[in-house]
Every structure is written in C-alpha cells, then in structure tokens.
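Team,

Forwarding the record for the chain on the shared tracking sheet. I've put the sequence and predicted structure together so nobody has to dig through attachments.
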Amino acid sequence: MAEKRDLTEAEKKRLARDERTRRNRRGRTNPSAVPARLTRTSAFSPRRFGLVDRGIERIFHVPGHSVVVVKGGELGSQHRDMIYALFRMKNKITSYRTRNPDAPSNGTTDGVPSHIDVVESIVSWRDLLRTMGKTEHVNNLLTAKNVMEDLRQIMLTIYEGDPDEVMKQLQSGRLPRGAGRITGVIDLVEWDGANLDSKVTVRWGKAVMTAFRNRQLVSLNAEVQFALKSDYAKSFWPFIDSNPTHVYVDETMLANLVSHPLFGEAETNAQRSQFRKDCRQAFDDMIRAGGLLSYRQEEMGRGRFKTRRYHYRHALPRADEKPQLELNLLPVVVGAAPVVAPGL
C-alpha cells in the first residue's frame, strides 16, 4: 500500500477552488464556467452600439478584483454575451497539443517551443444563437460573425497580483512588477459556411487557456445573463452572481463596473440621478430575469456625497447558505473611469 503524502499548497488551493465552485452552483441549469477576471471587470462597456476608439488604449480597474488594459477597440454587452455563450457550451470545448507554426522547420528551436497547447470551441452558428436565446435567423448569424471579428482584433493585457497596487504603478507610468499577459480573447475564428448549421471553430487566447488550466473559473448563471434586457444589469449580474457570500453591493462598486465617474469633477447632478435610475432598473431587470428575489436600497452618509447600498436576495440560494457580510477591507475608488494607458 502506497504511503499517503501530504498535499502541496498548490493542490490544497486547487481543491479549495473546486469546493467553492461546487457550493456556488445554486441549482443552476447549465451554468457558464467563466474565468473570474472576465466577470469582475469593467472592460465590457454597458452598451451594444457606438463602440469606437479602435486606436485608443484604455485601463479598466475594478478595485480589489481586476486591472485589464484593452487595445484595438471597445468591448460591449454583445461581446460579453458571446464569450459567456461559448463558455456555457462546455461539451463543445476541446484541448490538445499541436505543432507550433512559428517554430523553425529545421529542427532547432532557438527558444521557440516546438509544440503549443490549444483550447478550442467547435460549435455551429445555430448552437450560438440558441444558447444566447436569439432567433435562429441568418441576420443574427451575421451579427454573431461581426462580434467574433471584433473579439479577434481586440488585445487584452490582464495583470496578475494586487489590482490596486498594479493600478498605482500604471498611473505613475511604470510597468507593474510581477506577471502580466498580453493576449487576444480569441486567437482564431474559422467557419466552413454561412448557414445556420455551418461549423465554427474558435481558438481561445492564452489568458483564457491559462484560466482553464489553473481552474481560475467561476460558475455563472448564464440563463439569467442572456435574459437580461438592461446593459447595466448585464454588467452587474456577473459580479453579483460570482460572489456567492455577498449580500449587498455599494453603488461605488457598481459605478466602477460600468466606468461611471461617480462624484467625479465632471459628473453633474443630472448624470448622477440618471446613474441611480439606471441602477434601479438594472436590479428590477435582475428580478424579472429570475436572478434575484428582491432588493432594497440603504442610504449612507450625508449631503451631496450620500451614497446608496443595494441589499439583495439571490433567487437560487446555495444549499449551505449562511450569508456573510461583504467586508470593506479593500479601498473603493469612486469614479474609476477608464484612463488612457501609458506606454507599456
């Protein structure tokens, strides 16, 4: 009988992540397993049209959760839904090792790996539209193709380590210490036809592959995500649903998730009033879509800088539900609008 060995720290963390994922399933039907940094980010603009600025590089910071630099275009609600739809179809995801096309053909590697790991989703246009709850029509097929082309062109820099420290270094014009990864969300998109049942192959970028390999994934109720009508709700729901022990969220965090300059110098009273109206409509939408049972607002502070806190009840509580209050251990940056990135 083999001697039982102690688990390494990496193995303990891996098992703990798996246990958290299992506890957070909440009885969902076919959830999406999404890389955590793609749920707790403001890199997806809360709109679907008017996404421009292809030549601008922008930093998106959600305090305590993520720093993502986006270059080559803007990501919006439709891009987020496309990514989540592909992650939802877990049975369509394959991984394998293949010859590196950039490796020298003469047998010498010169530091270039001879083989590379690949993670692909192989679906049909019909699969995609059906998963997102879209009408299976050729016009929607063309829209899906255009969204994928956008994702193929946009480059992300996803920084590891403490997001707030990384942000300080970027704002001071320095390259953050530690690891970073510049990658496309999608490296390759191929299809064999423009019919609904044509095969579509999506090859994921390295950051996504790393998240799958390290199981840095969170379980997301995609059925609710695709049922949401409000673009603000589409920005809030992934954050709320991927934080299973939280029972409230402050509007300062909501502002960060949609890059709204709450209490910023450029914000007017009318803009603040509209933002709060959009937040209420987003929570109403999450109830309508079956994500939340209820919510209530709590006012905090005084005068012009009075803020709101949104307490909510999840529609699908965990079996071992023992809600814990969200600890305010991390600084919340008010008005964290995206800024132009320094040269990297």
